[in-house]
Amino acid sequence: MDKKDEMLVVDIGNILQAMRKNVIFILCWGILGLIISLITVFFFVEPKYNSSIDILVNQKENNAQVQYAAQQADLQVINTYKDVLTKPIILTSVLKEVKRTDNYQGNLSTLEKSVKVLNQTNSQVITVSVTDKNAYVAVDVANTIGKVFAKKVKKMMQVDNVTIVSNAKVNTTPVSPNKKLSALIGVVVGLLLGILFAIVKELTDKTVKDSGFLTDELGLTNIGSVYHLDINEDDYGAVKVIDRNKISKNNSAKEKISTPRRRRV
């Protein structure tokens, strides 16, 4: 193993050791991330609701061959209908209606951003999905779009092949924010921050904790150890002064001298 590999192994080992030593610290950061994410989701992020209406593009013909040709024509024109559904020619009338009935506070740009048009491949059904802060407003906007589109497309395209398959219904379950996903993200971010701080703390700690670091890592020679004198008030100093008067009265009396304890560093 060359020096680069050795350095890599040592670095990874140090990182793992830092993580093991700071497990509680890292877990606390994970819990903190969870708490912050939940507080943000429940108190600062406004929930949004979604409602959808299905529109069928289909021309009715008695002749089978003519019916097949009409279906192919409908499939080709669906992309045009999808574009028309999000254009001002439809949404302007929708905006006026929902402002009158629901006191809608948004403008044309806000309304356009809240509308999504979906269509499965080779399907004649167009789904118009509306997202809003109010579940009932989302329903009214979606149904109004279907009604206005079915009315205007007859004049614009000179066709009568649009049918409302299913009207939008109230869905009181918010589609955003995703509370479970937000909680998971909070925990993961918290744990990552905890690991990062633990590693930085360990790498920036220059304290020599073991003589092996000096001999093995730095290549120095250990020529001895210095002991720390653990001294308290009772045994302060190496020699305790004895009262001379007490010695003169009782020469045979012996005073015990407390020696300081020592602790290796």
UniProtKB/TrEMBL annotation:
Domain Polysaccharide chain length determinant N-terminal: 10-97
Residues that span the membrane, as ranges: 23-45, 181-200
Domain Tyrosine-protein kinase G-rich as annotated: residue spans: 150-202
Keywords, in A-Z order: Capsule biogenesis/degradation, Cell membrane, Exopolysaccharide synthesis, Kinase, Membrane, Transferase, Transmembrane, Transmembrane helix
Keyword Transferase included in the entry's annotation: yes
Compartment(s) where it occurs, according to its Swiss-Prot or TrEMBL record: Cell membrane
First and last residue of the signal peptide: none
Name recorded for this polypeptide: Capsular polysaccharide biosynthesis protein CpsC
